[in-house]
Design a protein that fits this description.
The complex is a heterodimer of chains A (453) and B (63).
Chain A: E1 24-28, H1 32-43, E2 49-53, H2 88-94, E3 98-100, E4 107-109, E5 114-117, E6 120-123, E7 126-129, E8 133-135, H3 143-146, E9 152-153, H4 158-169, E10 174-177, H5 181-192, E11 197-201, H6 208-211, H7 213-225, E12 229-232, E13 236-243, E14 258-265, E15 270-272, E16 275-278, E17 282-284, E18 303-304, E19 316-318, E20 323-327, E21 333-335, H8 340-355, E22 368-373, E23 376-382, E24 388-394, E25 402-408, E26 411-418, H9 421-432, H10 437-446
Parallel strand pairs in A: 1-2, 1-7, 2-3, 7-19, 9-16, 10-11, 10-16, 11-12, 18-20
Antiparallel strand pairs in A: 4-5, 5-6, 8-17, 13-14, 14-15, 20-21, 22-23, 23-26, 24-25, 25-26
Chain B: E1 2-5, H1 15-19, E2 24-26, E3 32-34, H2 44-53, E4 59-62
Antiparallel strand pairs in B: 1-4, 2-3
The chains are: A alpha/beta (453), B alpha+beta (63).
Chain lengths: 453, 63
């Protein structure tokens, strides 16, 4: 691996590098963005102290499979393991990382330049904030308030995924609250096992915010075609619970206390349930930054950064799910993305920029995510904020997939692709190049998938 | 230098194609096709980026 090229600042420019180079780099958040940050720091030649602080006990691991292959019934893919990107030895010995796992950061002192982990203070002169996001609870279900309710969970961590899988193996009747990506993937896994599944969504269509109503209707059909009972436009009024586990019921993740028996809807319906998975969105994990001086977004309390991921607080950068960033590709529109690729891109960029601010460049990403539903693959590139969403190919009847494009003025800015994997990166390139709308439409129309053998 | 793609691991997510479109293309079957598996040394940086970007660690560079 070659070293990063050195960058000479233009003559006469003010030196943007810190007067004293970084010698104590602390990365808070030991998932993908944090891992990429420590890797990039070493790759850039940084040889000072490097500390990785993580809330979970686990080594950095890959989250997307938790709601996909990890829940599958068959073979090795259903094993009780998930991919860790690097071994502990690689992290400690090869990358020289001081690993602090199972120790969530509790505060930040930007004057003293110390990260607080309980009673411990970890000094830094460079800090990457990569604490990600935490799922929301329904009112009355947050274990921190009322104690856990057995059979009610979110799906964010490996431990959550084990809870879900155990319940599915026991034949749970599943109710998913929220027809977003995570919830829909869990529904897919349960239907593959032949279990009864109901998905409850407060809005009239799934995914209206993330991909728009036109495509939300297509997603609704995927659920129904797979035998999932999709209830749209109805909210959850509360949970039905009982004390102690019923005989033959799925094990209660919350233990011997209350456990769920059903979900009560706004319209009075009660859906019987052994497992309730909440997929009602996340919030940035930034409670530990309140009052620290790091700028937090007035809406969702994400960390506000510039296009180079700098917070404006000396030496402090943010990466991944937490970061509200202006994207030059979309007229400097601010967004906060909860995507694997965003976390990977940001983590490396934040570390490189922190170590060498003079060489920092705006991070111009084309957002990209994927989701697996009932043997179908959805892929989205770009932004759904558009003047027009047009379905330009719909060959679902012949298993030929579906493509919708998103237009702003005369540019293509986004694409939703169902079961046409060859198109995705070609459309992403057009979006990155600020390509013309007409040519993108023509590309989709004139390059249908080759017939399946 | 040789590109090796583990086709049983590949999920066709296309990050390699995003990084190095001259060398990788996801096909209609949702699996990557390596367009030129013995690239010149001048492409090492791009190819290393493509290997690192694979979400399922299906790619390696040998030599």
């Amino acid at each position: 691996m070659s070293a990063e090229p050195s960058v000479t600042p233009p003559a006469g420019a003010a030196p943007a590098t810190p007067a004293t180079p970084v010698r104590r780099l602390v990365v808070v958040g030991a998932s993908l963005a944090g891992l990429r940050a420590v890797e990039a720091a070493r790759r850039a030649g940084y040889d000072g102290a490097l500390t990785l602080v993580g809330a979970e006990e686990h080594l950095p691991y890959d989250r997307p499979p938790l709601s996909k292959a990890f829940l599958d019934v068959d073979g090795a893919r259903g094993a009780d393991t998930v991919m860790t990107f690097r071994t502990e030895e690689q992290l400690r010995d090869e990358l020289g990382v001081d690993l602090r796992l199972g120790s969530p950061a509790t505060g930040l002192d930007t004057d003293a330049r110390e990260v607080l982990v309980g009673d411990e203070r970890i000094p830094y002169d460079g800090l990457v904030i990569a604490t990600g996001s935490v799922p929301r609870w329904l009112p009355g279900t947050d274990p921190a308030d009322d104690g856990p309710v057995g059979g009610v969970t979110q799906l964010r961590t490996l431990d959550d995924a084990r809870t879900v899988r155990t319940a599915l193996e026991a034949g749970a009747r599943l109710v998913v609250v929220g027809a977003g990506f995570i919830g829909s993937e869990v529904a897919s896994a349960a239907r593959k096992r032949g279990l009864p599944v109901t998905v409850v969504e407060a809005l009239d269509l799934p995914l209206t915010r993330s991909i728009g109503p036109e495509v939300g209707a297509v997603c609704a059909e995927l659920h129904r075609a797979a035998g999932t009972d999709l209830r749209l436009g109805v909210g959850v009024a509360g949970l039905e619970t009982e004390v102690g586990a019923a005989a033959g019921a799925a094990p209660a993740p919350g233990g011997a206390g209350r456990r769920v028996t059903g979900v009560r809807l706004d319209d009075g319906t009660v859906l019987p349930a052994d497992l309730v998975v909440l997929g009602i969105g996340v919030r940035p994990a930034t409670a530990w930054l309140e009052g620290s001086g790091v700028p937090l977004h007035e809406g969702d309390r994400g960390v506000v950064v510039d296009a180079t991921l700098a917070t404006g607080v000396p030496g402090v950068y943010a990466a991944g799910d937490v970061a509200h960033v202006a994207n030059p590709l979309y007229d400097d529109e601010h967004h906060r993305l909860e995507h694997w690729t965003n976390a990977a891109d940001h983590g490396g960029a934040a570390a490189r920029h922190l170590l060498d601010p003079a060489a920092a460049r705006p991070v111009e990403t084309v957002p990209y995510f994927w989701s697996d539903w009932y043997d179908h693959r959805l892929q989205f590139v770009g932004t759904p904020r558009a003047d027009e969403v047009r379905v330009v190919a719909d060959d679902r009847a012949s298993d030929g997939g579906f493509v919708a494009l998103y237009r702003r003025a005369d540019r293509v800015v986004g694409a939703l692709v169902l079961d046409r994997p060859r198109d995705v990166m070609k459309l992403r390139r057009r979006i990155a190049d600020r390509g013309p709308w007409d040519e993108a439409v023509e590309h989709v129309v004139t390059t249908p998938p080759r017939a399946k053998r | 230098m040789k590109i090796v793609a583990a086709l049983d691991t590949c999920e066709g997510l296309g990050m390699c194609e995003a990084m190095a479109p001259d060398f990788f293309e996801v096909g209609d079957d949702g699996v990557v096709e390596v367009l030129d598996d013995s690239p010149g040394e001048e492409h090492r940086t791009d190819l290393a980026a493509a290997v690192d970007a694979c979400p399922v660690l299906a790619l390696t560079l040998q030599g």
